[in-house]
C-alpha cells in the first residue's frame, strides 16, 4: 500500500504542490472587508481542487501494445467446465479437498485458464490464496523445496524444519481446518505434488501440467485443446489491433501454422504490434525460417519455450525419433515407422512413440487398420521446431537419407504384399517388414490390405513418381488402389506419358483405371472420357468389373463436383454393366453415385459414412437448407487427419460460407460477412491439402463475394484473379465455375 501511495503522489505532485502554494498565497493575502467573501470563495475552490486531485482515482492506463499473459479469448465454455469440476469432490474414500488438473500441450493456455478459474472462486476461500510454480527455468522443483515455498507463502514466521517429513507434517497442520486456495502451475512429475495435496477437506487445489497426471494423483482431469478456428482468429485480431478483413488470407494461414495455440498467437501478435511487421507479408515459411535460426527472435522463443523444455528432457534416441518423424510426409503415421527409421524393435518403437505422446510432442490419431497399432500426428509448431533441430544437427541429417530409404522399402514391400496377397494365401515378400513390425499377419484379408493402402496413400503417393521409372506396372497398380485426390497426382500426370506406355496384358485394366483416376484428379476430364470410351468394345465377362469400376469412379467424382449430366451418364453405364449381378460393394457404390448425381431422387442412404453424409447433404442443398447441410457434414469416421474427414470438412466450410452469405439473419451484417470470409479461406486451405483446384477456386470466389459486400473491392479482385488462374490451369471446369456466368459469386455445395 505504501508503495502504491508513494507512486500516486509522485505522479500528482506536479498538480498538488502548485495548488497548495496558491492556497497559502491567497490565505496570506487576507485583508478583510469586502474582499473576504471573494477570497473565501477562492480558498474553498482551491481546497476542493487539492482534495479532488488527491482522492480522485487514477485514470485507466493506456493499453499496452504488448499483449498480456492473462488474455482469455474463446474459453468461456472451458472456464465453466473447470469451475464445475472444482465443485466435485475427489474420488477417494476419505474426505479430501476439491482438486482439478488442467493438462494440455505447451502454449495452449493452461496457466491463464487456471488463474481465471481461481479468480472466479477466490471469494469462497478467505484464509489465503497460494500460487506456486513447480518449475524453475524448465527444471522441476523438488518436493521439499516446494513445501518450503508454500509455508513461506502461508506466512509461517518461524524456522522451517529441515527434515522433509516434519516439513510435510507442519504443512498439513497449517492448512487443517482452513479454507485455502492453491494453484500449482506447471507440474512435471506426480512426486512433486504428493506432499502438497492437503488431506483434509475445505481447501481447493488447481494444478496445471503438460502431462495427464490425474490418474496418479487421483484428481479430476481436464484436457485443454487448442482454440477453434473462429476464436483463434479473434484472438490474433485482438492482439494485433487489426480488423478481421485485413490480410485475411495471411491471418488464416498463420493461425493454422501456429496450430491455434493461444501462446503462439499472442507471441506472433506481439511481433506484429511491437516490431511493426506487416501481417500480410508473414507466412508459415517465414515462421519456420525464424524458428530455424540459431538465435531465435524473442517472439519465437516465447512460442516454443514449452516445446523446447520438453524436447530437452528427452533421451538422445527419443530426440532423434522426433526429428526423423518429420520426414514422414503423411499427416498421421503408425508407431512401427520408428523401426526402420531408428533400427529398433517394434516394442521399442511403441515405447518411444508413447513417451513422445506423453510429453505432448505427438498427438493421438486413432489406430492402424492393418496392424492395430496406435497412430500419431504432429502439431504444426512441434513439426516446425523438430525440422529446425534436424537441420541444425549435422550428424542426424547425414543419417536421415538412409533412414528414409529403409522406411520407403518397407512401405513398398507392404504395399506389394497387400496387392499380391489374398485370404487363402499368405502375404508374400515380407523380408524387411518383419524385422520392425509385430505380427505381420499372413491371415490378413485382401480387403483389409486394400484398406491399409488407401489409409497410407499419402505416404505411398510420394513414392509413385520415382517408382514409375523403376516399376511402372507396380506404380499403376498402386494408383488404381487409391481412392482420394492428392496433390502428387499432378506430378504423376505430368510424368506418365500415357501414349508411350505399353502395359502388360494382365495389368491392362489396372493401368486404365489408374489412367482414369489420375486424369480425374488432375482435372483432365476429356482424356478420362477418351479412355473410358476406348474400353466400351471389351465385353469379356472378366473385364466387366473393371469397366464398372471406371464408370463408378467417374460418376462419384462428377457427382461430387456437381457435374450432373456426366455423372448420370456414367451411372447409367455402370448400372447396365452390373444389371446381371455384381458385388454388393459395387452395387452400394452405384446407388450412392446415383443419389449424388440426382439429389431429388429418394432412397436409402449408403452404408459408407462419407458417401452417406454427402448424399444427405446434397438432398438438403437442392432445397437451400444450408443449416441442414452443415449438420450433415459432421466429421466422419477415419480419424481427424483422414481423407474422408478432410474432404467432409472442405464441403462443410463451403456450406458454412454460403449459409453466412444467404441464410444468416442480417442483424449483424459485418459479423456474417467476416464469418463467411473465414470459412471460405479455410475451405481453400482444405482444398489445397487434397489437391482439388476446383474447390480452391470455389472457395476464393466465395471469399471474393464476402470482400465485395464489405466494400473491399481491391482485395476481392485479387481473389477473383486467383480463382480465374486456377480454372485456367485446370482444363475444362465444372459448370458452376464458369466465370462469365452471373451466378459465379454464389456457388453452392454441389453446383
UniProtKB/TrEMBL annotation:
<dbReference type="InterPro" id="IPR003593">
    <property type="entry name" value="AAA+_ATPase"/>
</dbReference>
<feature type="domain" description="AAA+ ATPase">
    <location>
        <begin position="96"/>
        <end position="377"/>
    </location>
</feature>
<dbReference type="Pfam" id="PF00931">
    <property type="entry name" value="NB-ARC"/>
</dbReference>
<protein>
    <submittedName>
        <fullName>AAA family ATPase</fullName>
    </submittedName>
</protein>
<dbReference type="InterPro" id="IPR027417">
    <property type="entry name" value="P-loop_NTPase"/>
</dbReference>
<dbReference type="InterPro" id="IPR002182">
    <property type="entry name" value="NB-ARC"/>
</dbReference>
Amino acid at each position: 500500500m505504501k508503495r502504491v501511495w508513494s507512486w500516486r503522489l509522485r505522479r500528482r505532485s506536479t498538480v498538488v504542490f502548485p495548488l497548495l502554494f496558491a492556497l497559502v498565497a491567497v490565505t496570506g493575502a487576507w485583508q478583510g472587508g469586502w474582499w473576504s467573501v471573494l477570497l473565501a470563495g477562492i480558498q474553498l475552490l482551491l481546497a476542493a481542487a487539492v482534495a479532488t486531485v488527491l482522492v480522485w482515482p487514477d485514470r485507466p492506463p493506456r493499453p499496452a501494445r504488448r499483449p498480456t499473459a492473462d488474455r482469455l479469448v474463446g474459453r468461456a465454455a472451458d472456464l465453466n467446465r473447470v469451475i464445475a469440476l472444482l465443485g466435485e469432490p475427489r474420488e477417494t474414500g476419505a474426505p479430501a479437498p476439491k482438486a482439478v488438473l488442467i493438462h494440455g500441450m505447451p502454449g495452449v493456455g493452461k496457466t491463464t485458464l487456471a488463474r481465471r478459474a481461481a479468480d472466479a472462486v477466490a471469494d469462497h476461500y478467505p484464509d489465503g490464496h497460494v500460487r506456486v510454480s513447480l518449475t524453475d527455468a524448465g527444471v522441476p522443483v523438488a518436493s521439499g523445496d516446494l513445501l518450503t515455498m508454500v509455508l513461506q507463502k502461508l506466512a509461517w514466521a518461524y524456522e522451517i524444519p529441515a527434515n522433509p517429513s516434519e516439513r510435510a507434517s507442519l504443512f498439513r497442520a497449517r492448512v487443517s481446518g482452513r479454507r485455502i486456495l492453491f494453484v500449482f502451475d506447471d507440474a512435471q512429475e506426480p512426486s512433486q505434488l504428493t506432499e502438497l495435496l492437503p488431506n483434509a477437506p475445505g481447501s481447493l487445489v488447481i494444478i496445471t501440467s503438460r502431462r495427464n497426471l490425474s490418474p496418479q494423483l487421483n484428481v479430476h482431469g481436464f484436457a485443454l485443446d487448442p482454440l477453434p478456428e473462429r476464436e483463434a482468429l479473434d484472438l490474433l485480431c485482438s492482439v494485433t489491433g487489426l480488423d478481421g478483413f485485413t490480410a485475411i488470407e495471411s491471418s488464416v494461414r498463420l493461425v493454422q501454422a501456429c496450430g491455434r495455440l493461444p501462446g503462439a498467437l499472442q507471441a506472433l501478435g506481439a511481433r506484429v504490434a511491437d516490431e511493426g511487421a506487416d501481417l500480410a507479408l508473414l507466412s508459415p515459411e517465414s515462421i519456420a525460417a525464424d524458428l530455424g535460426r540459431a538465435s531465435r527472435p524473442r517472439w519465437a522463443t516465447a512460442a516454443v519455450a514449452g516445446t523446447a523444455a520438453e524436447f530437452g528432457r528427452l533421451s538422445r534416441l527419443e530426440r532423434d525419433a522426433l526429428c526423423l518423424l518429420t520426414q514422414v510426409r503423411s499427416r498421421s503415421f503408425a508407431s512401427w515407422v520408428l523401426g526402420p527409421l531408428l533400427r529398433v524393435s517394434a516394442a521399442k518403437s511403441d515405447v518411444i512413440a508413447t513417451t513422445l505422446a506423453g510429453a505432448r510432442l505427438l498427438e493421438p490419431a486413432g489406430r492402424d487398420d492393418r496392424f492395430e497399432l496406435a497412430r500419431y500426428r504432429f502439431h504444426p509448431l512441434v513439426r516446425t521446431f523438430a525440422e529446425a533441430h534436424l537441420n541444425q544437427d549435422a550428424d542426424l541429417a547425414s543419417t536421415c537419407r538412409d533412414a528414409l530409404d529403409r522406411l520407403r522399402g518397407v512401405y513398398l514391400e507392404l504395399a506389394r504384399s497387400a496387392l499380391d496377397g489374398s485370404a487363402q494365401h499368405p502375404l508374400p515378400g515380407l523380408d524387411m517388414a518383419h524385422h520392425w513390425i509385430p505380427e505381420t499377419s499372413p491371415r490378413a484379408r485382401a480387403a483389409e490390405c486394400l484398406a491399409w493402402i488407401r489409409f497410407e496413400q499419402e505416404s505411398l503417393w510420394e513414392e509413385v513418381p520415382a517408382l514409375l521409372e523403376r516399376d511402372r506396372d507396380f506404380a499403376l497398380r498402386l494408383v488404381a488402389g487409391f481412392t482420394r485426390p492428392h496433390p502428387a497426382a499432378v506430378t504423376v500426370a505430368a510424368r506418365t506419358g500415357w501414349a508411350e506406355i505399353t502395359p502388360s496384358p494382365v495389368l491392362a485394366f489396372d493401368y486404365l483405371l489408374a489412367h482414369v483416376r489420375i486424369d480425374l484428379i488432375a482435372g483432365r476430364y476429356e482424356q478420362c472420357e477418351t479412355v473410358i470410351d476406348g474400353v466400351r468394345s471389351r465385353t469379356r465377362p472378366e473385364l466387366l468389373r473393371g469397366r464398372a469400376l471406371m464408370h463408378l469412379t467417374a460418376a462419384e467424382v462428377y457427382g461430387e463436383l456437381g457435374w450432373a449430366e456426366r455423372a448420370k451418364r456414367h451411372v447409367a453405364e455402370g448400372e447396365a454393366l452390373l444389371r446381371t449381378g455384381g458385388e454388393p460393394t459395387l452395387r452400394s457404390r452405384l446407388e450412392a453415385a446415383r443419389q449424388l448425381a440426382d439429389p431429388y431422387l429418394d432412397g436409402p442412404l449408403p452404408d459408407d459414412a462419407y458417401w452417406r453424409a454427402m448424399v444427405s447433404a446434397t438432398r438438403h442443398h437442392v432445397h437451400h437448407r444450408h443449416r441442414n447441410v452443415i449438420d450433415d457434414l459432421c466429421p466422419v469416421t477415419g480419424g481427424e487427419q483422414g481423407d474422408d474427414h478432410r474432404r467432409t470438412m472442405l464441403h462443410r466450410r463451403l456450406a458454412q460460407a454460403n449459409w453466412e452469405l444467404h441464410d444468416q439473419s442480417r442483424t449483424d451484417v459485418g459479423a456474417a460477412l467476416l464469418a463467411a470470409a473465414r470459412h471460405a479461406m479455410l475451405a481453400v486451405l482444405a482444398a489445397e491439402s487434397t489437391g482439388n483446384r476446383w474447390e480452391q477456386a470455389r472457395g476464393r470466389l466465395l471469399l471474393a463475394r464476402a470482400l465485395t459486400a464489405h466494400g473491399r473491392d481491391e482485395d476481392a479482385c485479387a481473389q477473383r484473379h486467383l480463382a480465374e488462374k486456377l480454372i485456367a490451369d485446370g482444363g475444362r471446369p465444372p459448370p458452376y465455375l464458369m466465370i462469365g456466368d452471373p451466378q459465379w459469386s454464389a456457388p453452392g455445395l454441389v453446383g
